[in-house]
Design goal:
By secondary structure, the chain is of the alpha+beta class. It is 32% helix and 37% strand. The protein contains 4 helices and 4 strands, in the order H-H-H-H-E-E-E-E. Strand 3 and strand 4 form a beta hairpin.
Length: 153
């Protein structure tokens, strides 16, 4: 059950990003990526599973063996279980490659209420997202994550 919840939380990571402006002005691709993450974050808070899955490439695959359909099923389960979802995120780094590929490294705190024994769950994870720009849209193609302080997998 915890592994499934972890996978679900990883998917919610798509939806996480509150960026502070720092240093140099953001490039157009960086601005697009920030908007993409903000859209995902809003989708997760509103439990809009289809919107989030639409942000994932059909060819998505990660080192844990998840594909796009697996993430869809995890989101479905997570949203059914959680009554309320709160996200707090910090972007550590955005790297853009040739304006068509990118990597986002970030930390996300996630909390939610549910009908379980304690009625509340909270975790913090570090994520690395790989994205590709396809037909003017950024799509998640892979992700690695781990609990805060652990190695990314």
């Amino acid at each position: 059950m915890m592994i499934g919840l972890t996978r679900m939380l990883c998917t919610l990571t798509l939806a996480a990003l509150v960026l502070g402006a720092c240093g140099e002005p953001a490039s157009a691709p960086e601005e697009e990526l920030r908007a993409w993450v903000t859209e995902g974050m809003d989708g997760a808070k509103d439990k809009e599973r289809r919107k989030l899955v639409g942000m994932i490439s059909p060819s998505y695959a990660d080192a844990r063996g998840n594909e796009r359909g697996d993430i869809d099923n995890l989101l479905r389960l997570y949203f059914l279980r959680m009554s309320n979802i709160k996200l707090l995120s910090t972007i550590e780094e955005i790297t853009v490659y040739d304006d068509t590929a990118a990597k986002i490294l970030m930390t996300i705190g996630m909390a939610g209420t549910h009908d379980g024994v304690l009625g509340f769950s909270a975790d913090a994870y570090r994520f690395e997202f790989e994205l590709e720009k396809d037909s003017d849209e950024w799509q998640l193609i892979a992700a690695r994550w781990g609990e805060l302080g652990d190695e990314l997998q």
